[in-house]
């Protein structure tokens, strides 16, 4: 899943590039904002993706299928911009 890969990438960056060991995905994203690798808009969008992932995994019986469908159809511009910056600035 896209969100799992993003979380793993962000943990890897926080640990290896910045020497920080955050305990949650949201805190990991916060570290990247503090270090200037992620902007506030990307942070908000990635947090929304993590929340959707958590809903799908932990409370799937209350999932609004339309919400999931709309999320999948949306342009993942924040994800693409963040990944391009990681590639450009860190060479990943």
Automatic annotation (TrEMBL):
Keyword Glycoprotein carried by entry: no
Keyword flag Nuclease: yes
Family that this chain belongs to: Belongs to the HepT RNase toxin family.
Entry protein name: DUF86 domain-containing protein
Keywords, sorted A to Z: Hydrolase, Nuclease, Toxin-antitoxin system
Molecular function GO labels: hydrolase activity; RNA nuclease activity
Pfam families in the record: HepT-like (PF01934)
Annotated Gene Ontology cellular component terms: toxin-antitoxin complex
Organism from which the protein derives: Thermofilum pendens (strain DSM 2475 / Hrk 5)
Entry coiled-coil feature ranges: none
């Amino acid at each position: 899943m896209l969100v799992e890969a993003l979380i793993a990438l962000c943990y890897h960056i926080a640990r290896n590039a910045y020497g920080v060991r955050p305990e949650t995905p949201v805190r990991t994203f916060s570290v990247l904002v503090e270090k200037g690798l992620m902007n506030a808009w990307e942070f908000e969008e990635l947090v929304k993706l993590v929340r959707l992932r958590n809903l799908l995994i932990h409370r799937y019986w209350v999932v609004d299928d339309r919400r999931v469908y709309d999320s999948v159809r949306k342009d993942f511009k924040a994800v693409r911009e963040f990944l391009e910056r990681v590639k450009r600035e860190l060479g990943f």
